[in-house]
Specification:
With 135 residues, the chain is α+β, with helices and mostly antiparallel strands. Helix content is 28%, strand content 31%. It has 2 domains: 63 residues, no CATH class; 71 residues, Maltose phosphorylase, domain 3. A 4-stranded mixed sheet has the order 1-2-6-7, with no helix packed on it. Strands 3-4-5-8 form a 4-stranded antiparallel sheet, with no helix packed on it. 27% of the residues are buried.
């Protein structure tokens, strides 16, 4: 019934992992709009910080498919049909990695001093400092 503000974001992430993007997007909207639409009729008591974090998680871990495995970033990017693109930044090992996901490509840009390797659907990609890599 999604009475908890934590529930929709977890369901969004899992739906994205399963490739059920329409459901993932519906749950994403629920978590991102919880306070904006006052679903629980309790905004006067304060905002749901967990739901705000869940919105970020739905995008990064759900749609972006980001995981850390074997000390490396792994991505399985997906995009909701209604979106043209989205992007987010990750602070990984004191370097900022910007990930931009479009309908047909994913780009990585690194603000840092050392190259990092990331994996996109299992394929290794080296991202150089101040460079841009398109996959």
């Amino acid at each position: 019934v999604h009475e908890s503000s934590l529930s929709p974001c977890v369901h969004s992430i899992q739906a994205a992992v399963l490739g059920r993007m329409e459901q993932a997007y519906t749950f994403y909207l629920r978590t991102s709009r919880l306070d904006l639409d006052d679903y629980n009729k309790e905004v006067e008591e304060g905002l749901h910080i967990t739901s705000m974090a869940g919105t970020w998680m739905s995008i990064v871990e759900g749609f972006g498919g980001m995981r850390v495995r074997d000390n490396a970033l792994h991505f399985e990017p997906r995009i909701p049909a209604k979106w043209e693109a989205y992007s987010f930044k990750i602070n990984f090992r004191n370097q900022i990695l910007k990930v931009s996901i479009g309908q047909n490509e994913t780009q990585f840009a690194l603000e840092g001093n050392e190259p990092i390797r990331v994996f996109v659907f299992g394929k290794e990609v080296l991202v150089e400092p101040n460079g841009l890599v398109t996959v």
